[in-house]
Amino acid sequence: EGFTLTEMVDDVLETWKALGVKKSHLVGISYGGVLALLTAHKGATSVQSLALVSTTPSSFFMGVNNDLPAQTEDEIEGNLAKYFSPKFKERNAVLYRSLIKETAKTFIDPQSRARAQGQRQALRVFDFTPLLHSIQCPTFILHGEDDEVVIPEAAEVLHRSIKGSQLQLVPEVGHLFLAENPKAFYDSVSDFFQAQA
Length: 197
What we know:
With 197 residues, the chain is of the alpha/beta class. It has helices spanning 5-19, 31-42, 73-80, 86-91, 93-108, 110-122, 153-161, 177-180, 182-196; strands spanning 24-29, 47-53, 139-144, 166-170.
């Protein structure tokens, strides 16, 4: 019944411990990015390098309501439309409609909906901005300029606050970076991690 961001990070650190992982490159996307930056703070000696994608240090930078919309498919689809950039919707109309419809089905399912609501509850109000100065590992920040879910200012705050971090803002990409431009995602993140090896 419910969980917190800190509990989820403790799960990551305990899993690494159980598996004998001493050091790891860590990538976090969106919600996972919030967990990744908190993991880099709490388990500083375990994180070799960090990639933060489409994420935020604070709920202040979230441009969508964290409550799930009502259960009608139209309302769910309307909310999910904010996750994609206008250019992606225009260039990939069939793929966009397919992704929206499939994702909407997930939120109509009561069990999936309950799990998603638990995730949103954990994200309701948080501010890890004061912890960012403690992150000492090499850090790469990747963010779409058309992100309406986590506004790009969040990436700029991460960059200013994490000493020595690298920032890449990509035009015409929304929140779902991995869906909209997987090549840019894989190339940028893998190049960064290889440079830290």
